[in-house]
Design brief:
The chain is α/β, with parallel strands linked by helices. It contains twelve helices and eight strands. It has one domain: Uracil-DNA Glycosylase, subunit E (3-Layer(aba) Sandwich). The chain binds uracil. Uracil binds next to helix 7.
Length: 266
Amino acid sequence: MGIGADIIADDWHAALAALAWQVDLGATEPLGDAPVNRYEMVDPVRAAVPVVPAAPAQLAVGQDPVAVAVAMAAAATTLKELQAALAAYDHCELKRGARSLVFADGNPRARVLILGEAPGSEEDREGRPFVGRAGQLLDRMFAAIGLSRTAPDPAAAVYITNVMPWRPPANRDPEATEIAMMRPFVERHIALVDPEVIVVMGNTPLFALTGAKGILRARGGWQTAFGKPLLPMTHPAYLLRNPAAKREAWADLLALQARLRDGAAG
Ligand code: URA
């Protein structure tokens, strides 16, 4: 299916939204009104610029994207500075296609930090994590054990962030290189919030924090990351697709509640 050339959009975001809409409908290639003979086209870039070997300079010492992320994250001493550091970080391609930097929501003094995967379209539009259908389920799940992102009391509150602050195109999974770039920021984020317990929702945050894959095997089993207790849970989007798995998610929530009651370190 082709993308029609009749997109009428007067700004960049409207054009991107119109394109995303057509991709959601199944468009896989652009089509113009008039046919183009691409065999006769001269590539203006190749014609004008001598071929240069692939830019190793981008990976020169000091410019490795992960090393840059480590340095920028380490320099942030507050959440505000960390958000500014992410906004200034230019090595992740996802940033170019995203409308917002989705940093976090909830109470930064909460005992529980929830780490998700990446923003979806609603989160990208609103600039807040977990506000779409999966986010509404996440709110209901944690409300069932007395925790909320809007609670002023740290004992009743959660703080919510994602591994990726930018929406991946068409909600694809983040790539390992993209996760590696964001990991130093996530580590710093956790250090600045200093929660008692981390809950990872789904495979991407499990992999980012532990290097392990397989959330269905890992869920419900306590681990340690950055010196803190970590509980892997299935992602609420998975629970929306597989309602039968809500039973296990409920068991995980009860395990979290018990851990908080007993004192998270115990
Ligand atoms: N899924 C996530 O993992 N994070 C969000 O913010 C929204 C959906």
